[in-house]
Automatic annotation (TrEMBL):
GO terms for molecular function: endonuclease activity; hydrolase activity; metal ion binding; nucleic acid binding. Belongs to the DNA/RNA non-specific endonuclease family. It comes from the Bacteria. This is DNA/RNA non-specific endonuclease. Its cofactor is Mg(2+). The lineage of its organism: Bacteria, Bacillati, Chloroflexota, Chloroflexia, Chloroflexales. Residues 296-420 form the LTD domain.
Length: 420
């Protein structure tokens, strides 16, 4: 047999072997959403159905076929992602995920959530993705949605989303990772697990380049674990946790691309043995001085500061004609000689109903009114978006239907109170 003929047989054998061999999935992602790491080393390999990587313009996520929800979703947030808005919020039904349906796996539908008592809760918020119709619609794909208790979704979870956007408006960018823990049963005829808890980690950096190299032991980090139940406080700081605790609970490696010594500095302590214990400052940084046996107290009613403020509450319309929700408002006036930035300040009543100010600067001598109902925010008018009244209506028989408003700055100082 000639040498040339042997070479031809060898080439034919290699070609046949290559045609029938199964390629190994390799994670070579360049997605900006995974710059800090792929928390579970997810890959787009159908042979790994419970750690399946989906990468989109809006986010990256690890999908779990057997639970019908994401294990985690990760996204990068800059100001151009949501402001100024280039598109309107999508208003149609939530969308069957095209990747999941194309794989032939069971998939969630809009109607699976109907009349279940759970919201269709976004992991990547639609409010973070207003740069195009495509990325807005991608946030409504049902792989990005989990069954969420209304008081969780519309309360502290939403307020943390607003806080994150406010930090970006202040000249920062953010890397956000959110996900699920455990099970409170299922919906959709067993297709979709209702998570027992939801968690989130927010890493905040000043705007710049080479983000991974700019993360230090002093970098601002917010970490929370929230029970997926009703009856929660609106104050998301009550559910603060640590990266180490979330990793302990989930088995994930949340900042795997960050230098190990920086990861260790940002991780904070492991989970407390008492899941109700609050043990970590909201902004972790180096997590110095934290001690899981020494809870950080959160007073139920703040005490006013003795310093006369330039900004104060001057009036509450607590009993307007017509619908209270539509007509209620609180007037706040800046009596100083310089503008005051109210971003991330809090307005609350005695019962704990809490409004977190979006980006808002009140000029010297100016004022802003916080309305209880819904509307479009302007420089002088902000809207709480509630469907229930906040401020008690006083009566004439002296039985004590009064209320007190507290205006609290971003450092927790009570700047003004108004009793009526």
């Amino acid at each position: 047999m000639s040498r040339r003929y042997l070479w031809l047989l060898l080439l034919l054998w290699v070609a046949c072997f290559s045609a029938y061999s199964v390629p190994t999935a390799v994670n070579t992602s360049t997605s900006r959403h995974l710059a800090l790491g792929n928390p579970s080393n997810a890959v787009a390999d159908p042979a790994q159905p419970n750690n399946y990587l989906i990468e989109r313009e809006a986010y990256a996520l690890a999908y779990q076929r057997d639970s019908g929800i994401a294990r985690w979703v990760s996204w990068h947030l800059t100001l151009t992602d949501f402001s100024p808005a280039q598109t309107d919020r999508y208003s149609g039904n939530f969308i069957v995920d095209p990747t999941i349906s194309a794989l032939g796996w069971p998939y969630a539908t809009h109607s699976d959530y109907t009349n279940t008592g759970y919201d269709r809760g976004h992991l990547t918020p639609s409010g973070d993705r207003l740069s195009s119709d495509l990325v807005q619609r991608e946030t409504f794909y049902l792989a990005n949605i989990v069954p969420q208790a209304p008081d969780n979704n519309q309360g502290p979870w939403r307020l943390l989303e607003e806080h994150t956007r406010n930090r970006v408006r202040a000249g920062n960018e953010a890397y956000v990772i959110g996900g699920t823990i455990g099970s409170n049963g299922t919906i959709g005829n067993g297709k979709i697990v209702v998570p027992a808890e939801l968690w989130k980690v927010v890493v905040v950096l000043p705007e710049g380049d080479n983000d991974l190299a700019r993360i230090t032991a002093e970098t601002e980090v917010v970490a929370v674990i929230m029970p997926n139940i009703n009856g929660l406080s609106n104050d998301y700081t009550e559910y603060r946790s640590s990266i180490a605790c979330i990793e302990q609970r989930t088995g994930l490696d949340l900042l795997s691309n960050v230098a190990p010594e920086i990861q260790a500095a940002l991780a904070g302590p492991h989970c407390s043995t008492n899941p109700q214990k609050i043990f970590l400052p909201l902004v972790i940084g180096q997590a110095e001085g934290t001690n899981e046996s020494t809870p950080t107290p959160i007073p139920p009613t703040p005490t006013p500061t003795p310093i006369p403020p330039a900004v104060r509450i001057t009036y509450i319309e607590y009993n307007p004609p017509g619908d209270d929700v539509v007509g209620e408002y609180v007037r706040i006036v800046n009596e100083g000689t310089t503008p005051v930035d109210l971003t991330d300040w809090i307005l609350r009543d005695e019962a704990g109903a809490t409004f977190v100010f979006p980006f808002s600067v009140v000029p010297a001598g100016g004022r802003v009114q916080v309305w209880t109902g819904s509307g479009i925010n302007t420089n002088e008018h902000l809207y709480w978006g509630r469907n229930q009244a906040v401020w008690n209506n006083t009566d004439q028989d002296g039985d004590g239907d009064r209320d007190t408003a507290f205006l609290i700055d971003r450092n927790g100082n009570v700047i003004s109170t108004y009793r009526y």
